[in-house]
Amino acid sequence: MEITLKGDKEFDEIPSLKTKCLRINLNENIYGTFAEIGAGQETVRQFFRAGGASGTIAKAMSAYDKAFSDAIYGIENDRRYVTEARLRKMLDHEVNLVEERIKRDVHPNKMFFAYANTVATIDFAKKYKGHGWVGIKYQVDPNQGYNEIVLHIRFKENDARLQQETLGVLGTNLIYGAFYKYNEPRKLLRYLYDHLDKDQVEIDTINFSGPVFEDVDNRLMSLQLVKNGMTDAVMFAPDGNNVLPARVLYKKNILTLRGSFRPVTKVNMDMYKKSYDMFIKENKVDPEKTQVIFEITLSNLRAEGEIDEQDFMDRARLLCSLGQTVLISNFQEYYKLVEYFSQYTKSRMGLAMGVNNLVDIFDEKYYRHLSGGILEAFGKLFFKDLRVYLYPMQNDDDTLTDSENLKVHPRMKELYKFFKYNGKVVDITDFDESILNVFSRTVLKMIAEGEDGWENMLPEGVSNLIKEKSLFGCETEQVHLGE
Q: How far apart are CA 464 and CA 455, in angstroms?
């Protein structure tokens, strides 16, 4: 049974799990290993149940005992087992074994694969819901190199048995998509949730590699995770690659700047540098364990109701070129962002922002969906060990607006004073007065109209990158070294 697409977004009929497994099992050229650790052998069970698996499954194994697992795959430097490094060792080891034991000259048409997962399901006290790494290393042509799809999941169900079953469904969808939807990676991503609900499992990181995925931009694939509601946030390291948020944020002091960064300006970088200098001087802030995050909300990636993916790429590329870590989130309200960070750390956090953003925080319209309204939101926001670093705004008459004279709604005055005078809001005072009149929208307008001078409003190197890559509609005939 084939998936019948209706347009680009809908499909009329989802193949059953048995149908997917049978199509794999009855393909005489697909052959490989299942290695599953931590949540039973739930994926391979689907293939055994479907029938016809003898020509597909070379081996199915679970190395549950840590000592035995270490003897097979080696010992991790951090002594942990549910990690990406462990998963990749499993995939490499199992593929190498198949290559060693099955002779190519005898089976010239075999396409080898290894599917693996290393998972921790919910603990007995139900305090930690569990997570895991899932991946497949495989061929679609026996004469071609191996491809890999590796993803990280977070369980949402409160029962270990249900989590195991969810993993089995997800693994089946991944294997089927890897072989039969690899040329449509965006659809492959959506089909991972066949027979699943987003309330069961979250996919917060995914990476594609190999010859069939040479043209896949993993950052754009991460954007699809947020866009499709598969996760609330994804993260990119300064090298531009996807990175697991938990790995970056775990037990860290976090300083966050939210903005459109379209493009990133000298004001953005001044706000970052000055707030960072203040943040690391705070009590309970260890500079060695401090992480700076430049965050863009999904609402800031929309143009005329749809996400402008090229625009997203432009912003991410520029921020990463400046050595920054970028978070793309689905959080419109700041308290949701702080709650998200609180999953990974209890350490002190900081938010650097401009005056308009702080005024928006005190706007009740953003909290009407909460039963406790703005007070509930502020309880979630400022109950945490959090401080706001406020960058001033220059007015038309050249006066400045800061925390002392900004105006919030009259009903919010006393609430604002409470947080202000309890040290939750502090002014950035050592700012660069010469750049206060720099705005991203001005830069964009100048670029669009071909005006000169916008280059001086941006951090060093950013204007060259904009010109070289023709970002934000920039057109230039100037030739740069390295092109």
A: 8
Note whether 122 and 128 are within 8 A (CB).
yes
Strand-pair partners of 233: 329
Quick check: helix, strand or coil at residue 184?
A: coil
Distances in Å between the Cα of 53 and the Cα atoms of 136, 168, 174 are: 18, 16, 17
Cβ–Cβ under 8 Å, residues 446 and 453: yes
* Pairing, β 57-61 against β 30-37: parallel
Give the residue extent of every domain in the chain: 5-216, 246-435
In CATH, the architecture of 5-216 is Alpha-Beta Complex (3.90)
**Contact (CB, 8 A) for 254 and 347:** yes
Residue 15: cis peptide before it, omega within 30 degrees of 0: no
Task: Enumerate the β-bridge partners of residue 243.
Answer: 235
Tell me the per-residue pLDDT of 84-98, one tens digit each, with 9 for 90 and over.
Answer: 999 999 999 999 999
Instruction: Name all contacts of 228-232 with Cβ < 8 Å and 24+ positions apart.
Output: 228/189, 228/190, 229/198, 229/330, 230/189, 230/192, 230/193, 230/198, 230/202, 230/203, 230/204, 231/202, 231/203, 231/204, 232/202, 232/329, 232/330, 232/331, 232/336, 232/340
User: Residue 275's closest CA among 386, 355, 350, 358?
Assistant: 350
SS3 state at 84: helix
Residue pair 260/317 in contact (Cβ under 8 Å)? The answer is no
Strand-pair partners of 329: 233, 297
In order of 359, 363, 408, the CA distances from 405 in angstroms are 12, 17, 10
- What's the pLDDT tens digit per position in 88-143? 999 999 999 999 999 888 889 999 999 999 999 987 767 778 999 999 999 999 99
Domain 246-435 has CATH 3.30.365.10: no
